[in-house]
Automatic annotation (TrEMBL):
Organism: Rhizobium setariae
Sequence intervals crossing the membrane: none
Residue ranges occupied by any Transglycosylase SLT domain in the UniProt entry: 36-241
Example of a GO biological process term: peptidoglycan catabolic process
Name recorded for this polypeptide: Lytic transglycosylase family protein
GO molecular function: peptidoglycan lytic transglycosylase activity
Top-level lineage group: Bacteria
Keyword Signal part of the UniProt annotation: yes
Annotated CDD domains: Slt35-like
Length: 273
């Protein structure tokens, strides 16, 4: 026999399940700002359950917001479709090489120590440094944590940037990343534009001061970049042009073929090859 009490209990259970379903749906990925706040609340709970400290989460999520600038940048990456010549012209390859040679001479001891430790010569490191930030002159103006959170929420590459957001939370927790840090539109950090997960995996203390500062220390940024390349198969003394052994490590840096080719070509010119 179905009593009134049982009916009410069933209705209450149904209502609760509907409420949970609505919350879960609201917290899923999205292609506009709608639902971002619900997603952020859900992510914060998930991150707490996965070991991120509550103090870190409170600090981060008090600062995080949906970044329309990040989405515009993510949808507008057209330069990678250019020909190699047009790409290098647009990126100012001639200026990068000219300034890069001067940077190599001015920081000869630093580049020598990096090559001795990681096997990576100055040329490709300087080419990356120049291409990414104009040798540290412009590292981006977007709020890093908001940029990464936005892309974790965005449906296009949600899984990839969810990993990046967890890495960013860990960097905040260990003191490497300030909650108000600014950088590039996709959350890249510092003078050579590392994504958070790469800072965690490849970031090194290049100047020996006991901490990793990808923004303020060129030694940290460049040594970390060399460590990244070594981690992607760089072999000391081998060539790095297309078709040579170390070109594969450069491919690990950026997925765009024209970008890879530009680094190799400019690197060789800076190294005097």
């Amino acid at each position: 026999m179905i009593t009134t009490r049982k009916v009410f209990a069933a209705l209450a259970l149904f209502a609760a399940s509907c409420s949970f379903a609505a919350t879960a749906e609201a917290a899923s990925c999205g292609n506009t700002s709608a639902g971002f706040d619900d997603w952020a609340a859900e992510f914060k709970n998930e991150a707490a359950a996965n070991g991120i400290g509550q103090r870190t989460l409170d600090k981060v999520f008090s600062q995080v917001s949906y970044s329309k600038a990040t989405i515009r940048a993510d949808r507008g990456q057209k330069s990678f479709k250019l020909s190699l010549d047009d790409f290098m012209r647009k990126r100012g390859a001639t200026t990068i090489v000219s300034r890069g040679k001067k940077m190599k001479n001015a920081n000869a001891a630093l580049f020598a120590s990096i090559e001795q430790r990681y096997g990576v010569p100055a040329g490709p490191l300087i080419a990356i440094w120049g291409m990414e930030t104009g040798f540290g002159s412009f590292m981006g103006k977007e709020h890093t944590l908001s940029a990464v959170a936005t892309l974790a929420f965005d449906c296009r590459r949600s899984d990839y940037f969810t990993d990046q957001f967890y890495a960013a939370l860990k960097l905040v927790e260990n003191g490497t990343l300030p909650v108000n840090a600014k950088g590039a539109a996709h959350g890249e950090i510092g003078q050579t534009q590392f994504l958070p997960k790469n800072v965690l995996k490849y970031g090194v203390d290049g100047d020996g001061n006991g901490r990793i500062d990808m923004v303020g220390s060129r030694a940290d940024a460049l040594a970390s970049t060399a460590n990244f390349l070594r981690g992607h198969g760089w072999r000391a003394g081998a060539g790095y042009q297309q078709g040579e052994p170390n070109f594969g490590a450069i491919q690990g840096w950026n997925a765009a073929t024209v970008y890879q080719q530009a680094i190799a070509i400019m690197g060789a010119q800076i190294d005097g090859q």
